[in-house]
Structures
1.
Amino acid sequence: MNSKIQFYIIIFFLALIGLGLTFYKSIFFGFPLLPGQHEEVWIVEAKITFTAKGGPVKASFLIPSAAPGYAIQSEDFASTNYGFNKTKDEYGYRANWHARDLQGIQTLYYRVQFFGSIRLDSTLLEEEPKLDPLPFFAEPYQIAVDTLIEQTRNNSADTATFTVELLKSLNSPSRSQNVNLLLREHNTIESKTELFLKLLTRAKIPARIVRGLFLKDGIRNKPLSELIQVYDGSQWVFFNPLTGNSGLPKDFFIWQKGGKSLFDLIGGEDSNVTFSITRDLRTSQELATYRANSRDAKFIDFSIYSLPIDKQNALTLLLLVPIGALVVVIMNNLVGIPTSGTFMPILIAMSFKQTELIPGLCMFCIIIGAGLQIRSYLSHLNLLFVPRISAVVIVVILLMSCMSVFSFKLGIQHGLGITFFPMIILAWTIERLSIIWEEQGHKEALTQGGGSLLVACIAFLVMDNSIIEHLTFTFPELILVNLATILLIGNYTGYRLSELRRFKAMIKD
Amino acid sequence: MIFANPAKLSKRGVLGMNMRNLDFVLAYNPRHLFPQVDNKLITKRLAEKAGIPVPKLYETIQFQHQIQLLPKLLENYEQFVVKPSKGSGGKGILVVLGKQSGHFIKTNGSMVSQKDLNRHVSNIVSGLYSLGGHIDTAMIEYYVNFSPIFKDISYQGVPDIRVLVFQGYPTMAMLRLPTRTSDGKANLHQGAVGVGIDIQRGTTLRGVYRNNPIENHPDTGKSFKDIPIPGWHDLLILASRCYEITGLGYMGIDIVLDSNHGPMILEMNARPGLAIQVANNSGLVPRLRKIEKMASKKLTIEQRVSFAEKNFSANFLK
């Protein structure tokens, strides 16, 4: 009894590991459970224009590195006449273009392609920031600022509510005197944000500006949008300075964090940076693999995806064998279809995958039929066993070559597929069937041969199913679930479907 | 309905193939003991050593070169049977009923020359009749003069009695009768008729032909019912003794009735079929489970047989 429990525990864990890994890969890396799923990919193009003054030009552009919720798939830097390099500093990556002698209007392009990933906000883990030195305002602004801060502080409970209240008083249509005074100097959106940051710093709240894009298909030539990040004592919180909403908006792609400049230019003027956004669709499979690789997931490294493409294709076929085995087990132990040779149906089904079902079936029947005829003649010769089976192998090869040549001459391309049939298996099938034919009659031989063929067809249809093909390849760990199922059936002592028919007479009376 | 309700089958205690393999063949028949029953030569030697009656072995031919000695070896025997030791399904069995001017007379009256007989033996030795084609040994043995009591209900061939013995207990039995379709063979899946036998009384019950109940023999038209098997108790003892000599817990034992020598063991089978249940109109599982409960008692052969006779009547769990 103890070993029984152990057996079930093993089965349970096999299934658990298999299903667990599958769901892990599906949820955390987005490996799709169904074939043909697509996900959106965003392509953002930054267009930088400036006028070169004649002489050396050095342009440096901040490019996104780790945007929470997105993974960068590829980058392009298009610009003729420029030397280019990519550098990294404490704020992230910068694209640097340089040229020796240029004049007139210049255009630089930077294109980045990225897609949705799980939201891992690295800012949560950032250390507590140091507060910038307190800013001072000239009178009469200083009094207005202090009064505003004092009022807001009285109306709020903590940093978050303070920020919201401050934003409200800046944005509300019925502004107080103080706010009106302050906004008179800062009436563009850009400088309003600047003012807001200054006010927060004055209130001793660490804050910084975050620039990025609201992703929407078809946006052309737009500047970056701004968000404010406020440190509430334990973590950075996002605020939209225009609406006062907190939290990182769903479709916001962060380009720049903190105060470092977006674009630095030496040897030019009138620079302008605009962004265009395009949406595209990619297969989920492709993106999941990218995601897994970029996350440095070690077990993906050991998976099939790390192999060259042609090896991957060979493996797809190999990974389908367990599915075929499962079909054979079910057909044998649960349904009770007699087959000649346990795994012959799997190998036949694999050949059908190369030849297609109907041509494969025809070729199989022709070869086996002709083989049986010749084998029955060989049995009159009273040969020893090994020479006899070898003779059958040779006859099978002869038949296969004849069929290939004839069908080719007749213009039937499918005939060439015959070479995919494993000839040794065919020879064995012929040998077995002919022994059954002689010993137990043609009826039994037809039953077993037909049974094998039926199981092969079912195995083929299952193996050819695009969902199953996709699952076995994308989630090879499902083999463990398959194994657990087969082990479980190996312990099944109930009736086979065929026995319900066989023993029907037992309950008639 | 094409299919029987599995719950009803289970209630009748019908043994299925999966359970037979897992709970009985795998559990009670150690693999290394299989050759004892798969090789008829080993079976015969074991039986002879234990004093169990078997058709007497006259000669064995193991190598091709021994075949030239055949005429000399066969000189003294008027009737005999030639069979492969590892054959299955009655394949390769040649029965010689007499000799006439250097030729051998077969059961159907046709003549076989010495050359034909030599070739037949050569085929056996080269493995033509053994499944898997392994080289084999030809056995030449006593021709069983089978008792005429089943003459009316069999068509040619040798009728035999299959007793299912579980851990030494006779569990179920049936009479296997050749038909025209079975070509004189006594295997049910080749078309022979199986007739259940009441273990308690030793009389026949109903017949089964191709998985369906049948009252009369399909060729002779005679009824199967209530034919007493002579020497039933001794026959059960004989079957039960086979457990001790082979050590296999779950066995089918094929017994023939010789008119001169009484019951003889013809062969044993470590994977006996399930059709015996249909012939007896009774499931095997309750009987097997009942015996499993007895197994620890270590009864003698006589005690085991009387336990079976007492319990396994035709009305057991009806």
2.
Amino acid sequence: MTPRRFVLSARTAPRRFTCLVVLALLPLPAAADYLPRHEAAALLQRMADASRRLAYEGVFVVQSGGEMQTLAISNRPIGGAKESRLAAMDGVQREVRCTQTGSLSLVSEGGQLRMERRLNSRHFPDLLPQDATPLANWYGVRLGEFARVAGLDCRQVELTPRDGFRWGHVLCAEKDSALPLKAVMVNERGKPLMQYAFAEIRLGSAPRMNTAPTLPEVPDSARPVVGDSVLVKQLPPGFSRVTAVRRTLPNRPGEVEHWVFSDGLTHVSLFLENSPRPVETVRGQSKQGMIHLLTRQVGPLRATILGDAPWATVEAIAMNLEARGGER
Amino acid sequence: MTLPASQLQGDDSLSALIDGELDDDTAQRLLRRLGTDAHERDRFAQYCAIGDALRGLPDGDPGFTARVMAALEHEATVLAPLRRQRDRRPALWLAAATVAAISWGLWHSDPRQPLPSPPLASAPMLVPAVDATAYVAAHQDFAQAVMAMPEMQFTRVSLNGDGR
């Protein structure tokens, strides 16, 4: 079958844009069972704190589409921070270690150990940001059903986005500590896109960590960006730039700029690299619809926007990029 | 041409809003109502979907369609808006007014201005895969997943302002 190519005409494009913008920005309907914002903020903060301030060890399962992975985790609080270790129990031998000084990824493949610094210490169950209270501005929060996960009682906490720029989340908070025992990311129809759940967990114990108090010396492959090469005219509500570094990418020559925009829960990456030839504008989507990508030319640069976010978010960021005057 | 509120009622006003034919005051009033009235919001979504269907446009936003379909499931009757015969000129001001009104009226905690995005035309034409592995791997530092590379599908799209 010959693919049909659709192009919006000058007459229809503004109409369609009006529809998309209005529907994306309309708030969720008023519902009596959504928590007041101050209560929602307090609950989110309690869950965020629990994942860092509690000592626990256990095994959790990650499932996305047809893929499933099991990981062992141990966590203990160190001062106001955490020290955690994740180890993949199937597939490629992989570990993530997080300490106060940073986060490290260790991958053992073909008899070789590869160590890379990570730019972030985020992992289940520590998914909420350190300051989780602003999330109540962008998500409606309500308490759901009681459930049982890994032998512990918990209560579902539903985070419903107030607009079309983020996915929804359903967490199950342990009844006493509020530690998330399960986390499900859902699309606008409530269909699960990715889920984590503890299979077993021991709370309150101070696990013996195999990690050294400090991470091994690994050269930092990222350095801060000096002077922005593009202008982002506008970001979706609640999003701000949380990272801007120059770094190398795995198995790729040369450096790219890697920016990250986030509302605290949703993260979208922007990669900028010199492009000798103008690139075609291409949209990508993962099979489950969780990840969206757009590559386009911005001045002399190739911009790739990628995130586990709705298409509207990636599109809004991509379309608001503007080349700064002059070459870098 | 913009129309004052006195000439519009019910269905007419939603249709005129989409067409960019309302004056600023009426448009802002209607947008505020959409923010508080779930029934009106559902009707607005239906009008958008019906308009796209009548013009044979593809679904460029899966989320949009899903929201509309969810609304349709709860509606017994679907009313198709009458097509106006007079010439309609694109009114780009409506995009700005739309978001400004919503930002002002509904997003008290965020005084941001509208997203001045030009429209995107989606071409459902599969193109050879972009090598996104390195980007996805780098993004993993921030994403929730500690997973294998997801299967991706790519399409060519047209973007107003490309090549700037």
3.
Amino acid sequence: MLNIKHLRKIFNPGTPNETMAIYDLNLHLKPGDFVTLIGGNGAGKSTLLNCIAGVYPPSAGVITINDNDVTFKPEHKRANYLGRVFQDPMLGTAGNMSIAENLAMAARRGKSRGLGWGISKEEFDQYKEYVSRLDLGLENRMSVKVRLLSGGQRQALTLLMATLQRPDLLLLDEHTAALDPRTADKVLYVTRRLVKENNLTTMMITHNMRQAIEFGNRLIMMNHGRIVLDIEGEDKKGLEVNDLLKRFAAASGEEFDSDRALLSM
Amino acid sequence: MSPEALLNIGVSAISQGIIWSIMSLGVYITYRLLNFADLTVDASFTTGGAVSAIMITQGYSPILALICALIAGMGTGFITGFLNTRMNISALLSSILAQIGLYSINLRIMGKPNLPLLRVETTFKNFSEWIGLRDPFSSLILGFTVAVAVVCILYWFFGTEIGCAIRATGDNPSMVRALGVNTKNTVLLGLILANGLVALSGGLLAQSQGFADMGMGTGAIVIGLATIIIGEVLFFKKNFMLRLFGIVFGSIVYRIIIAIVLQMKVPSQDLKLFTAIIVALALWIPNALDQNRARRARKSANKELFAGDQDTNNGGASHA
């Protein structure tokens, strides 16, 4: 499904600020894989997701999605394959447009846009039903501007938008990190439901180790631009946080240093 | 002054306001919807006037002249959009470059800095004869018809799939890209549409006032901003259609203010300064009002909340 070969990303090449965010990364995702991605600050998790999404071009390597080479495809063309939710709740929605309008735009991801009306009555009713299943009480506020919603509501809406047109790959970039714990739980619940219902191939960055263990069928741990642990299937099921820390230390030769990840266990 | 003269001045101020409002609707597209500070406007307004005037003096029909003004204006928007989206020059700078370059082009279109339209047909003269009303009144009706048509077309367009994508681009470009839209094209399209309207407005003004000159667009962007803000402060913000009409009314209010100022014998060379002051005030007043409202609310809330503390401890009188 997703195939990454020898991916490398260098920021500010040739300057004193040169940083190698991803060194030489190979990754293959099978259809239906739900990968949780964990690692300390500067491990390269977000860079990896942004390279897949086409926010910036890689410095070397090849990325294919469903056998289509997307390495140098612009961001808006890859959108055909990808659903994305960002860490910042402001980034996933257009604040000055209504809930219904945001959903209508998401429903047209990967389709050509013309001079047809931006949202039809049938669509409106359908979205209302989808929104009611988020269980946030937003179904009666469909015409309200999204900027009036809370961060958690915006993230849940962004999730719905990302999956409205079934994406080949769903990319979640720490999408609950900016939320309070209760709201984060709610958004995670929605995430789990939508992924399961649509049988989505998913990559989810998280800084919460328990979450990384609990979610998905595969756990990848990154450090300094490399994948240091890749735990799958049965092996992942019995995993404990302490095992994970030990295996990380053994594989990378250093202690796991993210205070944020350890504190939020 | 006779009541009739006063009526004439009033009506011609309103019809001027309506003609200029089409320019302001263009500025609204870039300034409010696309969040793009487009200074092309000062030049594309003149381009519209120049094309409209030269074509009439060459014997073409006044309506065809307006259509060509619209198309020429779209071309100016394309230039700015190309500089910005294809050559990656910042919004402000690319529109300044287009503006400077267009100065030469406008001069070439007209051939001289001032082009009078004497003893020739204009859309306004023809319309006046056709409906049998004399000038400021016929101009008012014609201008109003065009403005209503433009508002309706904009309302429709920004409700379509492409229109929604343009609106969302000004709001959150990274989301729009994530949803599969090339934001370079939406920006380009918005600039083309906006400057087309600006030039149409310039073309109408040239035909209405009976001349085009190189200075007719100077400060147009500032007038456009003033109009938008007056419209937003004084009129409805309820929905998109009403917002657009609010801009038309804002433009009328602006022209009436200018007419009053001129009646007060303010020399016309001071008008630009006056405009700048109006805009600065219009930008500042809504802000100041909000702050003032918040301060008052805080004061009265504190008064209520701290009232019970007075006898128990040192009191809350100073917490204002």
